[in-house]
Amino acid sequence: MNKGIYLSTLEADSGKSLVTLGLMRALLGKTTKVGFFRPVIEDIPQGQQDNHIKTITTYFDLDIPYEDCYVFTRSELMHMSNKGLTGEALDEIIKKYKALEERCDLVLVEGTDFSGEGAIFEFETNVLIARNLGIPVIIIGNGGDKTREELMSSMEMAYNTFTNKDVEVMALIANKINQSNLKIATDGMREFLPEDVQVFAIPVVETLSNPTIKEITEALDGQVLFGKDFLDNQTGSFGVGAMQLRNYLTHLKDDSLVITPGDRADIILGALQANISSNYPRISGIFLTGGLLPEEPILKLIDGLSQVVPIISVQDGTFSVTNKIGSIKSNIYPDSVQKIETSMDTFEKYVSFDAVNDRLINLKARGMTPRMFQYGLIKRAQKSKKRIVLPEGTDDRILMAASRLFVMDIVDITLLGNEDKIREKISSLGLTIDPAKIDIINPQTSEKFDDYAKTFYELRKHKNVNMDIARDSMSDVSYYGTMMIYKGDADGMVSGAVHTTQHTIRPALQFIKTKPGVSVVSSVFFMCLEDRVSVFGDCAINPNPTAEELAEIAISSAESSLAFGIEPKIAMLSYSSGSSGKGEDVDRVREATAIVKAKRPDLKIEGPIQYDAAVDITVGKSKMPDSEVAGNASVLIFPDLNTGNNTYKAVQRETGALAIGPMLQGLNKPVNDLSRGCTVDDVFNTVIITAIQAQGL
After folding, report:
1. Is the pTM for the entire model greater than 0.70?
2. CA distance 169 to 138
3. Of 39, 386, 566, 682, which cross-links 491 as Cys (Cβ 3.0–4.6 Å)?
4. Answer CATH for 370-512 from 3.30.70.980, 1.20.120.80, 3.40.50.10950, 3.40.980.10
């Protein structure tokens, strides 16, 4: 049974990081714990860490010490090889790999970078390591500067070299291929490969190839004059601003990098104005050459602008700076979130690894892990894209989450609010949202405003609502967003970042209403603990539910649990377990448990039961030895809002668990409420579960 897979390249700049990121996310969605291992890393200054290891372990939150992720630097390995100690080096690599393998279900091993001299030595080293670790390999080739014949020749040579050394090759990936040549690349590899070896081709992605402003600034030792908050701007093309402004403006392209002497105030101001003009592309930044700075009045003018891009001063001349920028190779760092997500999405689009995973992972996962759960959420949301309306369109957290959702192409988003203010916010935050593809609606000026108001009047006139009240209501973003769902113009709504729970939910209760047979709207949190995902309900809506309401909350929570891939084992929580406790509160839980058993005899349920007996197998078996639920509960129903809200927050803060939700259950269409203290991640996750609900759960 293979517990590892080795990624090997043929040369430098193969785009290995894209494959590593994409494969890591795919594997974490299939198995419980994946390790990351680099037998040989590049030589790095004392006290610094290898960027590849830091990026992977940080982004995927891998609980692996940095020192356990590598064995030798490149110089150390070459030194041992020159001393005839190759065998000893392999022994150390095997020893460290096996230690990591014992702690993981699968280990992703990344080969060397080919960043220095000795490419033949590095390739042979990768073959030798893969063979001695006894794990299969995926070969990655760079087709960017090769003819078809050159690429096929190098890929076939690599395949034959590995197989001749008894290393199983799982797949070949031709990377950085022109979009029009993808099929040519896969057909070419298919000609010399057996049927069971997978072949894929990935197109060149310009946004991954071009450096950020931050990378260029560091490479040129530049001084940041303005826009330090936007140094992660991705550059596109670059050119020198040496001609008249009227001529230079015609050369601007999307994310252009402007290079101009520091005394060319006309080019500087013209480029800044073009950046905010709807008639010209957006620029990524401006580099001022020759150590020259604009005059004081110009600096003062720039400093007072509401929108500005990074402006960097460098000492070298224009010709030298232009050449240096052209030679800078872009990298992916732990904080390069946009590049990381673009890499993973590109991998997922062009590489179908189900067949490879079936051969690699013949392991039964130890339950639903948080990473598997989150990965599964994204995959499910992407299967059938839904439109989610976000009424709080000017909130920074809402916009940052919307940008992530847009980049990952998970849902379609509608933002409510003043269009000019929202677009200004998007620009000032430097977010990646295509202005042509974003849907922004101002309720008061919407062409559907009158129709929505009339519909609301018809729905609520029996409650003494007149047309004036209906118009006032539809001017409110929560009412307007909810009416979008009612009318079929949106599939779900997420709000509450700046509004109260009551403000968010009231419109839904008035005309979305509850599902047939459901009288109580309740909520659940998906609590992503270290080794499992539990469902907590109700921690957000009902203060003091009756026994009947508590039973209904339990049934709804079990259905939500099952719908999200978690086998429901329901614990009806109280301050006592079994029949020992007496009192009004515990009697209410006992009655609720009986109601659930009568209505849904198919559900596994225990109650009343204490929290420790519900989740700890030792305590559970000692207190309730005959229970199917005790010690294994996955759905925990709290007796009241006070207990539930405090408990979920205590678990979240004390264990570092991720709490996804609250997700409202019982409504005909999904409307979900955020906390006013929500984070960008909270918004992101809540939109995803709302989209999944909208798919018909």
Report:
1. no
2. 6
3. 386
4. 3.40.50.10950
